Amino acid sequence: MEPASLLPSIIFAGLVRVMLMLYGLWHDANFTVKYTDVDYYVFTDAASHVIHGESPYSRATYRYTPLLAWALIPNIYVHQCFGKVIFIVCDILAAVLIHKILRSQSCSAQSSVFCAQLWLFNPITITVSTRGNAESVMSVLVLIALHYFTKNTTLQSLVVASVTYAISVHVKIFPATYAVAIYFYVNSKYFNHQPVFSVMPNRYRVLAGVIGATTFAVLTGLCYLMYGYEFLHETYLYHVIRQDTRHNFSAYFYLFYLLPDVSWLSAAVFVPQLFLILLSSYHFYEDLIFTCFINTFVFVTFNKVCTSQYFLWYLTILPLIVPYLHMSLKRVICLTSLWFLCQVLWLTPAYQLEFEGKDTFLFIWIASLVFFAVNVFIIGNIVQFYDFRPNVERKSREMSEIGTVIREIWQKRKHL
């Protein structure tokens, strides 16, 4: 049975995550600097407030949907690691979805398994879930939505995709950057015989829009009825006006540090971000997965706040485009190395600022600018070397160069 070829990797990756979760318990009990993410303590405290009939927003810095606090109530009643187990399960499920999506697009079994392994054994994804960060939940929601949007042309798939997409936007607002591309894509998918680009609504667009908007409105409305404006502010509005001048990879952070009282800056920095996302949505919408990847990468790179957990938003979709990159292995290694080295360059002065009290803001900003430039360069390379075709034509694609490398690596691995 073909899916079993991924099973050994799933078991091993799951064991690695469980071992790290258990290590985290020991580490937290013996070291001042905790292994567990500070956000996990925030989630747990918010769940405790819910148990006592209070608002989860009674916990300072809880700025998420109340659904998360409700889901982690077992952290109080069952075990403190309950939430981590959920996040680890979602982390593994994301790999299964990556494999499933690629196979549904007739990507070879070897390449599909390899791309799922890129997720399973990515040190970033492993660390994020085992430390108790909830980003793996978002990964699953986004992947389910993409799977059903691109799976086939049945109304059932469209309904499931629209509902899941709306839930993902309710949980975190960044998938809203896919909305325009999805609107265009639904027309392209269901009327792929039409050569003319159209912005006019049709029954499929209306159906997807109504279902998505209704799902979002119901979830958000219920939360608003329970927690009022505080919910809207902490879950959504805060992230629009947020300015982080310390733990921030954004190229804008130093500008906000020097000019904290200039209110129009927050709105101004959205302009290039919005322009590029709309441009991408128009040019690439026929390949929805690629468009969502580019939109997410652009959103994170050009955002006024950028932390390491944001990287997982586009890393979730990256394995889905890897088989279609006409990029040499040498170039892939160089770009990946640049990406990691820039983070090391940033983390060095950031550590000196946070733990040694040194004034390294200027050096952090320079490192942020370098990281920004490298990310823009990587985006340009991906756009240049990607084998772009509409999703409906993916089944007839030839394997790209990097895809061929994947197949060769897999074949050599089997002979070891």
TrEMBL record:
It is a multi-pass membrane protein. One of its GO terms (biological process) is GPI anchor biosynthetic process. GO terms for cellular component: endoplasmic reticulum membrane; glycosylphosphatidylinositol-mannosyltransferase I complex. Keywords: Endoplasmic reticulum, Glycosyltransferase, GPI-anchor biosynthesis, Membrane, Transferase, Transmembrane, Transmembrane helix. Pfam families: Mannosyl_trans. Pathway: Glycolipid biosynthesis; glycosylphosphatidylinositol-anchor biosynthesis. GO terms for molecular function: alpha-1,4-mannosyltransferase activity; GPI mannosyltransferase activity. It comes from the Eukaryota. The chain crosses the membrane at residues 7-26, 76-98, 162-186, 206-229, 249-272, 284-302, 308-325, 363-386. InterPro entries: PIG-M. It is found in: Endoplasmic reticulum membrane. Its EC number is 2.4.1.-. Belongs to the PIGM family. Catalytic subunit of the glycosylphosphatidylinositol-mannosyltransferase I complex which catalyzes the transfer of the first mannose, via an alpha-1,4 bond from a dolichol-phosphate-mannose (Dol-P-Man) to the glucosaminyl acyl phosphatidylinositol (GlcN-(acyl)PI) intermediate to generate alpha-D-Man-(1->4)-alpha-D-GlcN-(1->6)-(1-radyl,2-acyl-sn-glycero-3-phospho)-2-acyl-inositol and participates in the sixth step of the glycosylphosphatidylinositol-anchor biosynthesis. This is GPI alpha-1,4-mannosyltransferase I, catalytic subunit. It comes from Capitella teleta.
